[in-house]
Amino acid sequence: MYRPENPFVLSSGKVSPVYLDGKKTTLGHPRAQFLIGSILFDLIEPLHPDGVGGLTLGADPISVAVSLVSGLHQCPIPSFVVRKEQKDHGTKSPIEGDLPKSGRVVVVEDVVTTGGSGMKAVQACQKGGFEVLKVISLVDREEGGRELFESAGIPFQALFTLRQFIDYDGEVRGR
């Protein structure tokens, strides 16, 4: 969405006239879910991870799509969820899913701006004893996220950048 007259506040706290609502695609379109799951499975499978997931809610449909596709390929990669806040009942675990102790995981995101949400997921995984192999995002807004992950020694990859959605004259495609 493009709204220069009334810009959006992003989860990073930054203000932008452009808002990419990844959930409209990852939750709303079954064909897109399958394609995203397939593309990310192809990127993730060579790493032989024990799980794929990230901070709820943006990562949830992505990790489930990857997990479903992995099952179709007879190469199961379970999905997991990193809670935004630790619950005060049950196991009180900040990470939900069936992962082996000291497992190797890939963190996924829908849109990365500064990388704060993804880094919260990375840190929760590391604190839980997991090795984070990589962070993959559908879109990188190119506002510091890549640098944050790489400065922490975590490889980062995005399928698209914000620039790819914007015409050279500054107009947003597909308003």
UniProtKB/TrEMBL annotation:
One Gene Ontology MF term: magnesium ion binding
Keywords carried by this UniProt record: Glycosyltransferase, Magnesium, Pyrimidine biosynthesis, Transferase
Cofactor(s) listed: Mg(2+)
Top-tier EC class: transferase
Pathway annotation from the record: Pyrimidine metabolism; UMP biosynthesis via de novo pathway; UMP from orotate: step 1/2
Stored InterPro entries: OPRT, Or_phspho_trans_dom, PRTase-like, PRTase_dom
GO terms classed as biological process: 'de novo' UMP biosynthetic process; pyrimidine nucleobase biosynthetic process
Binding residue positions for 5-phospho-alpha-D-ribose 1-diphosphate: 83-84, 87, 89, 109-117
Catalytic activity: orotidine 5'-phosphate + diphosphate = orotate + 5-phospho-alpha-D-ribose 1-diphosphate
Domain of life, source organism: Bacteria
EC identifiers of the protein: 2.4.2.10
A UniProt-annotated Pfam family: Pribosyltran
Amino acids binding orotate: 113, 141
Keyword Magnesium assigned: yes
Domain Phosphoribosyltransferase intervals: 64-145
The keyword Glycosyltransferase appears for this protein: yes
Family: Belongs to the purine/pyrimidine phosphoribosyltransferase family. PyrE subfamily.
Assembly and binders: Homodimer.
Function comment: Catalyzes the transfer of a ribosyl phosphate group from 5-phosphoribose 1-diphosphate to orotate, leading to the formation of orotidine monophosphate (OMP).
UniProt-recorded name of the protein: Orotate phosphoribosyltransferase
